[in-house]
Each structure stands twice: as structure tokens, then as C-alpha cells.
Amino acid sequence: MAGPNSLYGPLDPAPDAGYLDPPPRMGFFTDTSVCIGCKACEVACKEWNLVPDDGFNLLGTSYDNTGGLTANSWRHVAFIEQPVAGRGGGTDTPGAFAGLPVGPPASGLAAVTAARTGQDTGTDPGVPPAVDALAAAGTITPPGALAPPGTPASTGTPASPGALTPPGALASPGTLGPLGSAAPAGAPASSGGGGAAATGPQFLGMPMADLPGRTIDAPRSDFRWLMMSNVCKHCTHAGCLDVCPTGALFRTEFGTVVVQEDICNGCGYCIPACPYGVIDQRKDDGRAWKCTLCYDRIGDGLTPACAKACPTESIQYGELEELRGRAAHRLEKLQEQGVTEARLYGHDPEDGVGGDGAFFLLLDEPEVYGLPPDPIVTTRDLKAMWKRAGVAALTMAAAVVVSFAGRRP
């Protein structure tokens, strides 16, 4: 059951595959501008789909540890360390980062150090003093806790000898609560053990940790990180599906492409047919594997595991047409903010694969991310190939006729 555009061009793949009343086509929109490289998507994909591990070693050339999409990596988070010309220290730096703070000068180091190690005077509330977190934590009573019988009462000053708190006694008004704040009337008494109580709000973070923008003479780096969570594109015209001789690859009612591992015979025809180099064979059994867009989950109305786990919503799942509109709006917003290099990839139904079911917002050329700039499904040229083959066959036949017709009996 093939339509006029089954080989190339815009197409609704589910009806073309024979579904009479399919649901809306579903897909992914991956916004790389908010990807933080956490790899939550990779882990969630492996956990849900029981994908085996592919090693626990770094590549040696990147913080990436997978390198690309394989039969054992259905999601791949790329870490791209990209030099940026013209970016240096100072507030007069040209480009999108011009005017942003670069940290205090060297003369500010002494003030920062003093603010951390000296008494908190409140002159620089953004830089807390150094705190012995363990000692401070020992002076804090958890909310709702009651002092045990016989424990010296803590009222913000060292307890006097023999001052015991009766069982179940409550602190008086003005008693210091957690982190030195005043406890409300009727709050349980603190079991400070006679030690000095906190005298004000205390910062219990990492002592002496440099705060953002407060490093000494910090220049802007001359590189930037580009991160992208790559995945199978679930093409409108899927080359892998077209060449599969066993029917192991099939089109779902959601327009996605899924491999049935129990039918795959390991022939490997699908591997070179994919213009993105996504699908791959496992070395142990030879069968082909790739992302299924969590067909089992979306069939039950659930979000795919990778999108569910993404903490920044870089990976967005939904109806493909709605995602395309959302992506166009996001692109417009970024370009208005000066990110002129932002672009969409795989969203155009007129491209070489008829548009992707999983498309991306990129911050540079596709080649930077290891993506082909103009992917083309092989069936796009099938009509022209058959025409050329027909012309060649007719030419050869005519030549044979002429050669025999010229002979005498």
C-alpha cells in the first residue's frame, strides 16, 4: 500500500504503511542550547531498554565515553570543545559574551579572603565567612526535636552549671533556632550540650569554595562547550526499513521505526542504508539494534525514558507538528537574543529524507556535531536510476538488433 510519495518527499508515514486510523505522528525535539551533558538520557535509555553497557572508559580525546550511536548506545551525548575566535578577558570582549563580568581584579583577592576568614560584618553579604560545618551542625536541633531529660538548656548563651531542661520542656521566646534564627514561641528547646550557640545566620556550604565570578582576574575562556544528545531520527523515508529483507524493521502507528530483534537475521543490509549511521550490529549475536522511541511506553501513553529523565527539558517529546512549531518559536527567540548561529536540523519535510521524527536545534553547523549536512535516503534517486537503467537496456537492445540486421543470410 504505497502512495505517490512513498520513495521521497513529504509523507505521513503511518497511513502509507497501511494504518487506517493512526494517531498523530510522535517524535523528539532536542534543544541543544539547554543540554548540560548530564547523560541522564543515556542512563535512562539503558535502564528501561536493558541495553548492555559499552565499557566504562573515556575515549582519551574527549569527556565523552561512548563516541557515537551504536547497538549498545541508543542515546549518545556528544561533548564538543570548540575554540571561539575573539573571546578573551575583559568586559570589552566582542561577541555574545561581551559585557559579562569576568571576576574581581587581583586587588580584590585580599578582601575576598578576609571576608571569608574574618568576622561577618555584613559589608559583603554575597561572600560568606568560612565555617566549620561540622561544628556548626552540632549546635542545631532538628525541627520538632525535644531535648532529652537532663540536657542543659540552650537559650543563645552557654548554659549555667546545673541548668537542666525538664522532660518535654519548650524553649522560651527568643531562643535561637536552626541556623541561628529566632525560634518561635513554644518551639522545642535546643540540646546544645552547653556549647556556644550560633549567633547569626551561617553558611554551611563548601568552605573556601570560589563563587561564580569571584575568581582572581578570571578571563573569559577561548573555547565553548557544545553538547548534544543524539538519537535515531525515525526518518519519514527510512533507508534501513526499505532494505530489510525479513521485515524485522517496521513502521509503527506513531510513525516511528522499530527493530524486532526476534526476526532480525543479522544480514546487515540496514547498516549502510542509514544516511545518519545510526543503526548498528552487536558483535556477540550480529543482530541490528537502535532506538525504538520507547514504543512500549508511548503505546501506553507514557513519555519515552530519555525525555522523562532529562532535567532541562532539552529532549522534548510530543506530536511532531506541535514540536515543529515549538522549535520554530525557540529558534526565533534565540536569534532575537543574538545567537545568530542557531539553526534547526531535520525538521524540513522537503529534505533528503522527508523530514525526521527526531530533529534538533543546533548552535553550529551540523558537521560540528558529527551530523551529515544533507542526508539523502537512497530511494530518492530510485526512479531516476530505473529510468537510466531502462534507457541503457533499450540502447543495448537496439545495438544488438542493428548488429544482427546488418549481416547477410
From TrEMBL:
Q: Which domain of life is it from?
A: Bacteria
4Fe-4S ferredoxin-type domain location is: 26-55, 223-254, 255-284
Q: Does the keyword DNA-binding apply?
A: no
Q: Which PANTHER family match?
A: FORMATE DEHYDROGENASE, NITRATE-INDUCIBLE, IRON-SULFUR SUBUNIT
Q: Where in the cell is it found?
A: Cell envelope
The residue ranges flagged as biased composition, category Low complexity, are: 152-163, 173-190
Instruction: Tell me what this protein is called.
Output: Formate dehydrogenase iron-sulfur subunit
Example GO CC term: the record gives:
cell envelope
Q: Does the keyword ATP-binding apply?
A: no
Q: Where is the region Disordered? A: 140-198
Mind telling me which Pfam families this protein's record contains? Fer4_11
- Keywords carried by this UniProt record: 4Fe-4S, Iron, Iron-sulfur, Metal-binding, Repeat
Output one GO MF annotation: metal ion binding
